[in-house]
Amino acid sequence: MLARFSVLALALGSPGLAFQAPPPPLPPFVQIEGSPVGEPREPQVLFWQASQVICDGGARVAPAQFVPPNPQPLVTRLTTDPEQVTIRFALDAEGRPRDITAANPPRVRLWMRDFMPSLRASRFQVDGPKTGCTISYTPVMQSIAEAPLEELARLGVAQRLRMGKEVWERLSPGDCHETPRLAPLSRSYPDFRKLTRSEGTRNWTFVTYDIDTEGVPVNVATALTSGYDALDAEARAAVAAGRYAGGPRKGCLQAWWTGAETIPAPPIPPASEAQGNPACEIKDRWVKEPRLVFPPSYQQRAIEGWAILRYDVAPWGEIGAVEVVEAQPSSEFGEAAINVIRNARFKPLESGLAGCIDRVIFRIRAQPDHGESEAAAH
């Protein structure tokens, strides 16, 4: 344990530390409030239009690589329409956002799961660090029949292809979706060893094809893509090499993506700068150890972070008065760290403790060289 400072380091899959996987995605769509009981309403998709970034009291900053938030299926009963969201942040010398916080009240948080992670994954054109930056996101709700195909494709990747039939039919109309389904006799995959990852975002591609009477894919084409040509070519080659029973069919679709390249957290202050209570430095202090949970949206984008917390401990071991001293690259790592500490418990003490300080560090484990992939034939 560091003097006056202890470290809780989260490395996904690390032995000795409990990691709780994020919950599975919510079901694609449910009835939206306002629809008569028993009368289905057409599913909708929510995506966001971003404003220009303004820094330092009025200076406009252009993006070098802007990553928009993931689209969202409407999965709750809406009592109010989504509101515009404003995010405050700073930019480091390389144009990467940090000090990211929300300017909106907590009631808007339902829609904000990917705002701060996607902003951290973006990069802006700067000639030095910037402060006082803001960006606003305006909601756009459209039905499946009206939503742009690129937004539906991004929704599919974000939902790991857990999409309703309406989405599949928009992306690739035809009889390939119908039952009985095609039976794959052999299936090939892209060679992910040839591909690279992009920081904080997935590269993805959707390939359309038909099946002839011999079970051979024909008319193979890239339908929608994030723009990574090498992945597009590998995916087309993989589709063309497959063989199927149950043809002929038209309008088949497969999708693949790579995992995101890790974005390291901003440097954490040295432990020597902490002003914690040395009495908290108890070697065997936990009766209930911290359960470290990586924020799911940041895990998906492979974004690392940390938080420094101050808290008190009651004589019976309960932890309270938890406050965030600092968190980077966003306030959401502070919120996640608070949950880590609050759910832990000290062993009973003769007297309580005040002013304990801990660091909660969220790290991404090394990812395999071959990359992450997902595929689905519909």
Architecture blueprint of SSEs:
Blueprint lengths: L5 E6 L32 E7 L2 E3 L3 E3 L1 E3 L6 E2 L11 E7 L5 E6 L12 H7 L1 E2 L5 E14 L5 H10 L6 H7 L11 E4 L17 E8 L5 E9 L3 H13 L1 E3 L3 E9 L28 E3 L7 H5 L4 E9 L5 E10 L2 H12 L2 E2 L6 E11 L15
Parallel strand pairs: 1-20
Antiparallel strand pairs: 2-6, 2-10, 3-4, 5-9, 7-8, 7-10, 11-14, 12-13, 12-15, 16-19, 17-18, 17-20
Quaternary organisation of the protein chains: single chain
Mean pLDDT: 84
Helicity level: 10-25%
Instruction: Outline the biggest β-sheet.
Output: 5 strands, antiparallel
| Whole-angstrom Rg | 24 Å
- Counting helices, strands and paired strands, the structural category is alpha+beta
Low-confidence parts: 1-40, 369-378
In the CATH scheme, what's the topology name of the largest domain? TolA/TonB C-terminal domain
Query: What is the string of SSEs from the N terminus onward?
Result: EEEEEEEEHEEHHEEEHEEEHEEHEE
- Overall form: elongated
- Named at the architecture level, the CATH assignment of the largest domain is 2-Layer Sandwich
Tally of individual helices = 6
CATH superfamily of the largest domain: TonB
Strand order of the largest sheet: 6-2-10-7-8
